[in-house]
Amino acid sequence: MTADYPGAARWVPTGAGLDELRRAARGCQGCPLYRNATQTVFSSGPPTARIVLVGEQPGDQEDRRGAPFVGPAGNILDRALEEVGIDRAAAYVTNAVKHFKFRQDGPGARRIHQTPDQREITACRPWLAAELAIVDPDIIVALGATAGRALFGPDFRVNRTRGALLPWPAPPHEDAVRVNKFFLATIHPSAVLRADDREAAYQGLVADLRLAAEVLG
């Protein structure tokens, strides 16, 4: 890590529970994204969750409200989870990167989402590793490429593994956060909003999440 990207490890308390992690994450300065974000957006869901859903980063609404997946993409995710019979309240929902990365062309202008780069993903990974160690889910779902890279490293591609229920970690990578569970990759719900054929994209997301629902029984 460089001086600008010291990484989150120094802010992650040893032996902490989720509530302590959430409190500690408020002060994280592991990468420069904390400077412009409104707040750290950590996670929602119980420590006993059998499924962990990992997204990319907070969006505009999430940054303002301090909770993951509460904007338009969150509405898509909620709808898809309900359709396959997964209770959102019983799931653990988090992001690979905990601060909103955006571009703003002048004061008062709309904040435009920017994809986190690998240094930012790597800097934030200790939080995700700590979360997974506590929750110990039956299945981990990566919602999009950034989540996959956080879990497996920079060579991860969603389309190589999408829609297949795989043992964790798969594919193996030296940077993988290792847990003996199942893994599933799918698109980020925001991809449905950007798709030319939204219904087809949504149905693909639902089909992928149905596999996760089967693991949960």
Detailed description of the structure:
- It holds the Pfam family UDG.
- It comes from Acidothermus cellulolyticus (strain ATCC 43068 / DSM 8971 / 11B).
- GO terms for molecular function: 4 iron, 4 sulfur cluster binding; deaminated base DNA N-glycosylase activity; metal ion binding.
- InterPro entries: UDG_Type-4/5, Ura-DNA_glyco_family4, Uracil-DNA_glycosylase-like, Uracil-DNA_glycosylase-like_sf.
- Belongs to the uracil-DNA glycosylase (UDG) superfamily. Type 4 (UDGa) family.
- Helices cover 38% and strands 13% of the residues.
- The chain has 217 residues and is an alpha/beta fold.
- Strands 1-3-2-6-8-7 form a 6-stranded mixed sheet, sandwiched between helices. Strands 4-5 form a two-stranded antiparallel ribbon.
- The mean pLDDT is 93.
- The longest helix is centred in the last third of the chain and has 19 residues, at 198-216.
- It has helices spanning 18-25, 60-65, 72-84, 118-135, 145-152, 158-161, 189-194, 198-216, and strands at 43-44, 51-55, 92-95, 102-104, 111-113, 139-143, 166-167, 182-186.
- The chain has one domain (8-216): Uracil-DNA Glycosylase, subunit E (3-Layer(aba) Sandwich).
- Helix 4 packs across helix 5 (145-152).
